[in-house]
Amino acid sequence: MQQQDLINKNTKQFKSVQSGSTQFRVSKLNENKCQLSSYNRRDFYKISLITKGESRLLYANRDIEINKPALVFTNPLVPYSWDGYIPNEEYEGYFCAFTDEFLHDGSRLESLQESSLYKADGNPVYLLDDNQVKYLVDIFSRIRTESDSEYVYKYELIRNHVNLIIHEAIKMQPAVAYFDPPNAASRIAKLFLSLLERQFPVDSAQSPLKLKKAGDYAEKLAVHVNHLNAAVQEVTGKSTTTHINESIIAEAKSLLIHTDWNVAEIAFSLGFEYASYFNNFFKKHTGLTPMKARAI
């Protein structure tokens, strides 16, 4: 390898290590007030190891009862919450939270996003036997030790440990203790609104909205689009498309007022392939062109 190539490689590794602290977190449950709901940000995947305590995971359109040690995978694009979890009770375990970038190494992340571990209609909960608990507690302990170390490439080691956890889960049979939540229409509508809210604010002109149509939301929530539309209409009195359009218009106005992005950049960030499509959409819903709205 030529000297310059070696320098470039080492520089890239150093930058990766420097950014690791913002892309990865690990903690014991209830340690320093870290709870199951910690890091419910839209850019963090999370793996929770629950070794003691009972709760229910409300994930997409399902409730999953957790009444024994479990490994739980939660996706930032799938709304979820914990029911029955009380922080001051005797809950024990670990969790780690990480971004797309932390695990990204070519095709692996894409396959991870499409795996049953993180899909809305997949199986995010894996109930554990004693040997599996011991093995996973050991891995999380190693992750915490490395996280506190001064080793310059510690995040490479941590990434390897996280992948061990992921592959251990892939080998397991998932939990099947699912039951339908009461008032399904209300639950689905609430999940849709929560997922819609997570799409905003738009952070970058180079990263367009991931979910743009009712069908995109239905796929993430693992329901048929007609079922989603009916539930949202019943509960809110508005169509799914109306909610999406109103949110896009509100974000467009905010970007026009509070950023110096040009109209093409705003259009791209909001999921429009061409600025002309965005101009027509904006004028249809506001009566103004984007440039006129910016000038007011």
UniProtKB/TrEMBL annotation:
Record's keyword terms, sorted: DNA-binding, Transcription, Transcription regulation
PANTHER family: ARAC-FAMILY TRANSCRIPTIONAL REGULATOR (PTHR43280), TRANSCRIPTIONAL REGULATORY PROTEIN (PTHR43280:SF32)
Name of the protein described by the UniProt record: Helix-turn-helix domain-containing protein
SUPFAM superfamilies given in the database record: Homeodomain-like, Regulatory protein AraC
InterPro entries linked to this entry: Homeodomain-like_sf, HTH-like, HTH_AraC, Tscrpt_reg_AraC-type_HTH
Ranges where the HTH araC/xylS-type domain occurs: 216-296
Keyword Transcription regulation recorded: yes
Ranges in coiled-coil conformation: none
